[in-house]
Amino acid sequence: MFNALYFRTFITLVETGSFTLTARRLEMTQPGVSQHVRKLEQYLDKPLLERHGRRFTLTEAGRRAYDYALKLFAEHEQFRHSLDADSLYSGDCRLASPGSVGVMLYPFLLGQQQMHPGLTVSYSFAFNHEITQDVQAGRYDLGIVTDPVRHPDLEVEPWHREPLCLVVPADFAGSGLADLMGIGFINYSDGLNHAGALLRSNFPEEFRSISHFRRQGFTNEVGMVLDAVARGLGFTVVSRLVLETSPWQRQVKELDLPVAVHETLHLVRRRGMEIPRRYVRLLEDFREQRRQALFGYSEQPGFG
């Protein structure tokens, strides 16, 4: 007999790679997890796992069962959400974004949930490639990415722009490119691209490549990169969202530059998916709030 619960247990087992972690996450016993897998194997009449002591690998049938289960639950969630697609103030909001966006968007969404208890928020902080994979698999309805992606199963559209900021230690006394090269660069996941774009636009005669700058360190968590700057270890270039929400704002400063450069954020969704009204309202309200804060008016040039 078909039992969706067995497939859910199997998905969790594959994603955790552990019977113990699966049992803990699903609040089951470990023998219960094993029983679900055996029942699923009996139903499909195929072995799904090759066991190696406490570890396991998937058989070909196991890989196909996992892919099928992801599509099954993605379609289920899409159907469930479609039932309340017209509601502005109720339903689950499942989004993913890089940390540079989530540091401000996630608290905003939580505030909306407090005002509208019918809303629930499931938010993931992830890298661009992870976000597109999760949206494609149906684990999240919408993703926000900093790089436009091309995929036959996904629709991508520009959504919002945030200024890039060149951030230096608070006691930094320089102003030119040579001064910046003297203190070195603190990198993070999107740091090289952001720094290259901003420096190229503002120092067109002098700047050649960010590779000419001494590297003073790297972190994969953009929210922490300003800690290194605050300690005087170098400079970096981040979205204004990161600077405005950083606990190190008083220990760093933004270097004034003549040419503004923006990071474009893109919305990603499964092709053909109609965005429920609650998402449209929440994202537009957030964008409107940022427009007012950044530009002092509601309509941002270049975006409708």
From TrEMBL:
Keywords: DNA-binding, Transcription, Transcription regulation. Residues 1-59 form the HTH lysR-type domain. It holds the Pfam family HTH_1. It comes from the Bacteria. Gene3D superfamilies: Periplasmic binding protein-like II, Winged helix-like DNA-binding domain superfamily/Winged helix DNA-binding domain. CDD domains: PBP2_LTTR_substrate (cd05466). GO terms for molecular function: DNA-binding transcription factor activity; transcription cis-regulatory region binding. Belongs to the LysR transcriptional regulatory family. This is DNA-binding transcriptional LysR family regulator. It comes from Halomonas campaniensis.
